[in-house]
Records
---
Amino acid sequence: MYRTHTCGELTMKNVGQQVTLAGWIQRIRNLGGMTFIDLRDRYGITQLVFNMEKNSQLCEEARALGREYVIQVIGTVAERENKNPRLATGDIEILVETLKIINPSAIPPFTIEDETDGGEELRMKYRYLDLRRNPLKNNLLLRHRMAQEVRRYLDGQQFIEIETPVLMKSTPEGARDFVVPSRMNPGQFYALPQSPQTLKQILMVAGYDRYFQIVKCFRDEDLRADRQPEFTQIDCEMSFVDRDDILVTFEGLIKHLFKTIKGIDFTEPFQRMSYADAMAYFGSDKPDIRFDMKIVELTSKAKGKGFGIFDQAEYIGGINATGCADYSRKEIDALTEFVKRPQIGASGMVYVKYQSDGSIKSSIDKFYTADELRIWLEAAGAKPGDLLLILSGAREKTLKALGNLRLEMGDRLGLRKQDIYAPLWVIDFPLLEWDEEMQRYFAMHHPFTAPVDEDIPLFNTDPSKIRAKAYDMVINGVEVGGGSVRIHQKDLQAKMFEALGFTREEAEYQFGFLMNAFQYGAPPHAGIAFGFDRLVSLFAGLESIRDVIAFPKNNAGRDLMLDSPSYLTEAQLNELRIKVVTDEKNC
Amino acid sequence: MYRTHTCGELTMKNVGQQVTLAGWIQRIRNLGGMTFIDLRDRYGITQLVFNMEKNSQLCEEARALGREYVIQVIGTVAERENKNPRLATGDIEILVETLKIINPSAIPPFTIEDETDGGEELRMKYRYLDLRRNPLKNNLLLRHRMAQEVRRYLDGQQFIEIETPVLMKSTPEGARDFVVPSRMNPGQFYALPQSPQTLKQILMVAGYDRYFQIVKCFRDEDLRADRQPEFTQIDCEMSFVDRDDILVTFEGLIKHLFKTIKGIDFTEPFQRMSYADAMAYFGSDKPDIRFDMKIVELTSKAKGKGFGIFDQAEYIGGINATGCADYSRKEIDALTEFVKRPQIGASGMVYVKYQSDGSIKSSIDKFYTADELRIWLEAAGAKPGDLLLILSGAREKTLKALGNLRLEMGDRLGLRKQDIYAPLWVIDFPLLEWDEEMQRYFAMHHPFTAPVDEDIPLFNTDPSKIRAKAYDMVINGVEVGGGSVRIHQKDLQAKMFEALGFTREEAEYQFGFLMNAFQYGAPPHAGIAFGFDRLVSLFAGLESIRDVIAFPKNNAGRDLMLDSPSYLTEAQLNELRIKVVTDEKNC
């Protein structure tokens, strides 16, 4: 060992001890007679002292060091005159007797501080330096802690962690697979799993009634700001259970994490909200319920008074912004601009101010009397001082726009506090989604998702109305996990494939091995997968998942540190029996 | 829940309770008046009883069921008349009142018993049925338990589990990479990691001084009997440590596993044996030290007596087989055949029998007097009744052949007991290996392995004599892990690259990003990786790793259940901008 202690553990109890420390130089302060060095390692920072009077040569040596040098010192722990209460080691310092440079450092391209001056690209290229900064280190420590606690909880519930293959088989539906040419089977390819979905169902058929895995998954999608081509799931499946067993078990997991990691004790069951309610009241299938401000439908109340826009709208709805009646013209305009952004897509916004004196002022005074507007305010539960914001148009689109406006108002009013966590289950999702372009139904979750029992007759009448035994866990407006009860009955599966427009042959071709397995005694089963990167970033209070991943890729799917992907040699390509197509015409 | 209890938990304490069980039918015995069903789940087997007199309809239903049907029953726990002490639930049975078929099963293609009649191929194709068998289930449970204990131990030692990317960069040295074409970066490829070696060293530069990961690694090699294209490593790295710190820490890990998993308490430090001694005394760098039977060199004692074969040999050595002096001609011939097999490669074998009456009989009586042979026997520590087996030839090859003969004798004498575990460290490996064909040195471990300090001057005189700070952990003749102290000093690294015949440019091209990182304050570091599949199979008492992996591939790298790898569609290939080369001439 190059050290007797870490840089995070020495306190007043150690005063007088001779210790050996090793680490990186965070900062050097030359005060003439004295030189101070902050020595850093993973565990903390300890102040080193060099005294010009006592040992001028050593002090000169110390002054000649640079940031991020790796050094080893031997010295004696002493009480500090100016204690630093923000440091765990802030009561002591080390009077250095011996100094050894283990490795010098070039000048880092950005500062290794909590707030750095490095741009995104530079920090990704020098990820090993960025990872030295406290915020990133704390994220990775949190991720480690959470992974251990996930395992501790699930192991305690008799779940078995089983590794499934990374070299899988290409699946035809859904997002694009990453593929791997097989040298031993020329012309054939493995695919990297988008999730171990089929294999975990296979494991249920195999009798492993409680499976989990913290596992890498892969999707070759065009990357949005916060997607990664490889990401990590907490993947779980159970047999001989129905929906409620899953909800209780995995609510337990999330409660365990909140308790052990954040010290937050959720003693009540999580709220369960139907997809229909989530859309109607929050305009989203992942409602942020840290604040109320529910959407109120005003369609019947607002139509037929001669205001053309409303009269033509399929849907009219509003949200009540508490205490915002005094919003200025400028503020209202800003909100109007917000809802008119292409991502939100509203054509305009109507407001009704319920002023503190009880009077009403609105942008549609011409069309509605105060009494008529008062009915809306009442419906929205508005009180004097409140502001009612109203959108109209096609039902679904308007609800989503209202949902976004609600989140924007939540932000403006400081109602989305980072240290408040509001988890809930969203349930009863639609089983099928109609695709206008393809003129067919798609499975909203996946083709093995079970319908709600009482909705099964709807396969023959109105498949779009069938609710699925699917569930999402949502925390603070973020979908952290989701899953479903699976179909384990042959007949029901056939009905489902029929609804999806699959012939028996197509179903056989695409899901043959799973359907095959189901012939040999498939138990009832259900599962869930949590986005682990997302869950950690939520616990870390971050918007993005990038900084809870040690070595993330950028939006072009590149690892800037490794400079990957990269070109292969001709010899490598020949051995794999593949050719890169460079001629556009061949594509 | 479809059950109130599992099939493994009901005992006399539950007698009289009404319970609901669900599981698979292991066996049906129709005894006329009574029908018995063994109901199986992951946790055990419980006997169900159907009584013709009490409920003939239910009993008829039960008789009509088949093996591997999934059923649910409600019944009352009763004491059994004929108790089965081999079953945890053997004291009780369930008097069934209600029976529900959850799912029927086709007739399995092989029996789901501890000893099955299914061939290897069939069992891999129907892996979900094979995984129902106890031996495989116990392997996966063991694997789960071991993974959890590995994490518990390392977490307790302040190691952090950090996930490194699966989409990595192709590395030029060593085994072949699996590669992944990047759609977003046409013509470029990711590579799947053969190990996270460079990234874990990067993490040390980043200050994460105790890293581990249980991680999938990939090698596109032609598969020998017991290799898999994807395998799992316990990958570890530490900073500010030297060799002994690593040995102590990871000896601790293995001791923890033996204690918690097998109840075996290793209180003494593991033996450490130099590579030179391992080769000289055991003819192997992974000696099985469950038994002694060390190789004894006889070169100087046996040469110059006119026996041509010995006189011309570079090396002569033997092993003493205790109590085997009475081996018949046939037995000796069999051993001679064994050493002459191409894998062993000896041209013949000489024996000296030290008979119980003290007389000596050998295959070379013509050339040596009894007194001369007695000197050999003494050197080998032979006693009356023992048998000395002697091979000769080129030194290294003969030692390896003797090593194999030693293992063979160990097997024959029952000295390699499966429930005895004999771990040791092999240390002081050569740093470099000379490749005759390429006329250059290769790194025996990898190019960042540090030499033993006192051997550094040998870079200028005899590089092949340099010992590495490398170490392997060997248990019962199986290498379960290995690693090294890494070079963290620029000058030493340059010397190493020079010895390997790399120009500065080549080194930069191949290891640029790591060498770049090393400029910014690299700490001294060292690491190790354990083959997790191998370790589990050792604990399971298995020869092969295949049955400790849920979904292994066969020797052609195929997953027979998924029928993977498989062909892609033209559309997929076009999108990836690659073409499969089918014309032999283009290869």
Note: The first strand of chain B starts at residue 18 and ends at 30.
---
Amino acid sequence: MQKHIPYRIYLTEEQMPKQWLNIRAYMKDKPDPFLNPGTLQPIQKEELTPVFCEKLVDQELDDTTPFIDIPKPVQEFYKIYRPSPLCRAYNLEKALDTPARIYYKFEGNNTSGSHKLNAAVAMAYYAKEQGLKGLTTETGAGQWGTALSMACKYFGLDLTVYMVKGSYNQKPYRKAIIETFDADIIPSPSDTTNAGRAVLAEHPDTSGSLGCAISEAVEVAVSKEGYRYALGSVLNQVLLHQSVIGLETKEAMEMLGEYPDIVIGCAGGGSNLGGLMAPYMVDKLMGSGPRFIAVEPASCPSMTRGKYAYDFGDIGKITPLVRMYTLGCDFLPSPIHAGGLRYHGMAPLVSKLYHDGYLDEARCCKQTEVFDAATLFAQYETIVPAPESAHAIRAAIDEAVKCKETGEAKTILFGLTGTGYFDMTAYMNYRSGKMEDYIPTDEELQYGFDRLPKAD
Amino acid sequence: MQKHIPYRIYLTEEQMPKQWLNIRAYMKDKPDPFLNPGTLQPIQKEELTPVFCEKLVDQELDDTTPFIDIPKPVQEFYKIYRPSPLCRAYNLEKALDTPARIYYKFEGNNTSGSHKLNAAVAMAYYAKEQGLKGLTTETGAGQWGTALSMACKYFGLDLTVYMVKGSYNQKPYRKAIIETFDADIIPSPSDTTNAGRAVLAEHPDTSGSLGCAISEAVEVAVSKEGYRYALGSVLNQVLLHQSVIGLETKEAMEMLGEYPDIVIGCAGGGSNLGGLMAPYMVDKLMGSGPRFIAVEPASCPSMTRGKYAYDFGDIGKITPLVRMYTLGCDFLPSPIHAGGLRYHGMAPLVSKLYHDGYLDEARCCKQTEVFDAATLFAQYETIVPAPESAHAIRAAIDEAVKCKETGEAKTILFGLTGTGYFDMTAYMNYRSGKMEDYIPTDEELQYGFDRLPKAD
């Protein structure tokens, strides 16, 4: 008899992970080192410690330790909002009339509304442990800023968030939530930094950019006594912290006697996909493992149409050079509603695994197709998903429909990274039929490729 | 050794309630019957069935059956978003330095953002079972409209929501969520009903009222073939369905070896408090049980300053007369941010229990005090609460501080009915120092009392 599988499974506190999983330790070919953009030499620890906390730099550069202990205070914070549920999408399966079994790991049940909190807690903890006064960061859509404000308040740290001015003006509620956790929030560009003042002098009416907000946040972090900078995606350390998603998932799946045939994640900077797939990717590196699918927006197709090359991590060109799938940091994606996927590159770790064939497939979706999937999912599973998460839903539905055609009862797992409560403008746009699809032309992509730094 | 108590406890599917609990069956003195406002005679079933589904009318009038089976399809829907977690507020306890143990039952982790879904599911199911085409309802803040739209979509029913025009214009995101679940949403007053047209003729620029929206929804329900009306609070049937909150809570508390000394709920229409306290109230009716505290806004003090009298349930005076604590249906409370508590009366069942001394205490709070508590709670427990729920938090904090003074390690339980993601305007208002407290004068209250119907 098939074991009864509940709609939602929560691990107990005892079952929650005590260590993060470092995929890199299992890779024979490691991701290429970060380079100093001036010397083109591998970056050294002491070049990074003025920007990031020391322990986080260690984690960033550590590609040999398989498991890293989650500090006790971080474990305690995790217990407040985790474990997140692993859900069986019975109603979606019924709606699709598919023999596939669909599971999703739902990370949206916390005030940040997404998985971002998993890394924010770790960063705030290490900053506190190092005796720092505070952190700086940037935020676009606002989920990362919210997550870090929650974590900094909890550990008693100051936080300054540079929020892209356009978002700052359009999303007063996000600002209000961040302020509820006592963070300072400054629209970027601002007159509080040299970087901001320079942009304002040239473009006084600009609505800002993530690149400028990063430059401002980093400038304050390196120049102010007792401050460091925190970044919410792309970095190795972030993927390490996010491995808690995959570890919980694998534990819960094992309780059910399940192992996924397909693992699907949306991919912007790569933090969610990198975290969800972590333990299954280790299986893959050892010779077994499921099929992995990364889903990105057609408007910003870094894996499906980008180059695997050294590039700056930010638009402002102040970061080290990292080897990744990229559209070039000068490529400016069209404005889509899944702001969290609007990044020119992809986490170096995810990029390397894709390049070497361990991450099986990247595919891109148009945003109208994504909102078709989001709406169907909301109606049957009752959760209104974030537009970013809905990319994974789109692919999961497509795979389940294939199973119907072939009659295969595959086990499909995807990451539902967050809720769409702050994205209802996008849903309104979709419903009114006004949503447009943006697909860059080859010429538009060439513009970014032509401006890639010469580092290879 | 004290048993280890986790931060959050989730029941398994097997442990979830299979029956709702009907408090009235345990009362020696039953709540007074509803009266026909014309004849002043107790209302008969056949007077209610044109408005409500038949099974729901049975439940409304049934004051003898202690347990009523939860239909299997409703149980299945509950499993999608329930059980809700019972949380131990370790961090709040630490912040308050109190010996009290504070627990809260968190009902906000679903797309309606509140406990309202518990009753919506039941109502949609019974409508479907009766072979109806659809339901109508009204919504003010939007949580009830969202909940019923989710439930109707799930069971394949049409839904028309009359949303108070002021809210409709101010809260486009709520409208967008409701539309995602394919409900029709009409700003009230509208030209789709006689009631709406009459109001518009006299006040073309009105922003509407809940009273008018109810009148429109009921008019459509009784005049359209295959439609009935659904109400989200106040009624006996709603409190019955909401007993799932209390039943889950009691089961989880028993697993921990805990029994509350104090049970606290915010009270607007009474649905959350009535549901949370249900099994503990049965204990009280049997001679033991905890201390109960109902918390209401100072601006709308139906229990603390109202009269126990027969009154209309709505401002439009189209409902039966019900005996309850009321400020009079002509009393118009000042606009506060906790819109869900802005109701002139209190559920007849809650009112009766308070009148007879089983519900120990009602207290009222000013909204600035409530937002002090909401902010403290958010910062320590990481959940941004709905303004309504924050009334219960205020009282829980005050009780925990008393415990610090007396050294008593009491067990405090409160209901956290929902999240405040759609209430950030209120938080901004609070944070900017512009929030005002409204306390009606005795003269203002007298206006409502003078207009109470003569039925006693």
Note: The mean pLDDT of chain A is 95.
---
Amino acid sequence: MPLIAAATGATPSRRPVWFMRQAGRSLPEYREIRAGRGMLESCFEAELVAEITMQPVRRHDTDAAILFSDIVVPLRAAGIDLDIVAGTGPVIASPIRTAADVAGMPRLDPSSVGAVTSAIGMIIDELPDEKALIGFAGAPFTLASYLIEGGPSRTYERTKAMMLAEPDLWHSFMGRIADITIAFLRAQLDAGVDALQLFDSWAGALSKAQYDEYVAPHSARVMAEVAEYGVPRIHFGVGTGELLNSMTDVGVEVIGVDWRIPLDEAADRVGHRVAIQGNLDPTVLLAGDDAVLEREIDKVVAAGERAIAAGTPGHIFNLGHGVMPNTDAGAVTRAVELIHAL
Amino acid sequence: MPLIAAATGATPSRRPVWFMRQAGRSLPEYREIRAGRGMLESCFEAELVAEITMQPVRRHDTDAAILFSDIVVPLRAAGIDLDIVAGTGPVIASPIRTAADVAGMPRLDPSSVGAVTSAIGMIIDELPDEKALIGFAGAPFTLASYLIEGGPSRTYERTKAMMLAEPDLWHSFMGRIADITIAFLRAQLDAGVDALQLFDSWAGALSKAQYDEYVAPHSARVMAEVAEYGVPRIHFGVGTGELLNSMTDVGVEVIGVDWRIPLDEAADRVGHRVAIQGNLDPTVLLAGDDAVLEREIDKVVAAGERAIAAGTPGHIFNLGHGVMPNTDAGAVTRAVELIHAL
């Protein structure tokens, strides 16, 4: 598998590429199959999950499928009352803010994500041998931010207030979330995913000092608890230029990079210890101009090659964040062709 | 004036401190005076502007007043149909996206911001001699993002699409916005402000390469066109760790830093060429814990002192972004006391 080769310092048979949120609204076939079905319920229907996961692989010939799911799926499966509201994001019915709330946090029984593990079996049956299936979960900090704020936030003010003013409560809470994340990842690994990505999407809201003290120990425990499976572990967040080293230190094989930092510079920052993934600005796919697409892809590929020449074990092409919903599917297909042709 | 001393490499008589958005919802007297009045209309009532500008200086004893206004005020004054919607932000009636839209961009007649310049006169009359009045404007990129997207955005997708796919149109548009920004700043400088801050709040959404090519030339022109006034020029954006050098290169005396980067590291990055401003995480004021407040202020002050010891001309204490609306005013007063006592 080219993706696994690039992640582990081997030589891939072709330049591996996949896109965060490649399964989603940019695809007409996705919009059709999702019509009239809620996001969260869709994540608990095994056949639908498998079908949606496969759609972008069939259409774009990406080198990996990423499980169609959402970072709040294991929280819902554990029994937390929440929904994913179109146009808003996750909304938590009763935000978790007190010691009693934290003490009442449920645990994840792997059988409650049976739809996800069944879907993984179906995907593996269909997926060509050379393509990897990537499992994923939300990292404790990003999940904590939703659970504490009650939904998406621009400021993370209650989250940081708990972190700073009630560190014992914070660490206990993060530990409980990490338990759920670990159980969810292990269920996916037991079902056979080839790699995993831990999304700490909003970690970039933190300073390095905050990340190291309040977040890193919990993400490190997640990574340690899945290490025995021996699959590549990818770690990604947005706006994490200051955190790349810390996010590598938690124990990963691949560090994801957003578009703000050239890949070779990011690779230098982490001392070429791990493979890199990224980092085309997702808006480039929206610009509607083939020459721009080609030029910007060239830049990312060239930076990846400079990183490898300097000692980085490999480069997995991706965006710097997810495919935006109103991206034209044709532009995504074209991007994959260009990347594979280079 | 301690603020001007710190900005210009002299020795301030005390450690200067002010807070972005110090005039605003955190103050009971602000909520009272704004009751029943829209944000935008308030910015065009000279006496109200002067009163609101003075409120935090009286209550907290900060070393500077910052003009109560909004970055879209000069756009509205120039004739662009927009409003500031509570809980949302600026909303533009007819977003600017085509060559015809750009050609139709109005210019700013300084007389249309007469309320602002009158307010400045009133503030100067009341402000104690040792306190600075800071004028401000939005930088062309951040204003462009509102005008193109039609309001606040998390992705800046249309903005970046124009930038990437229609660079000539983009530069022409940015030039027209820069004209308005320059006219607005010159009006404030003519009225007597002691310093100015250019807010490129959302520049952190860009890579350094994007910033350097599409944004820096226009911000540099703004800075050059106000240089003759000889007042300190402060430049600030959120999440700009990768951009600090570029944002300094446009021609400033002070670089503002958000909370993601320790001040001494930020100062190193810009080669100690300019004074630094920042960078307490605004959520620290919300944590509701005096010991945390003191500890975090100590860290910022210590980093500022290390920067100065390494050659940086000065440090102006501030937050890493604005005061959040539900901050307790007492915590802000306490912060100023702590900073002045250190």
Note: Residues 91 and 151 of chain A are 5 Å apart (CA to CA).
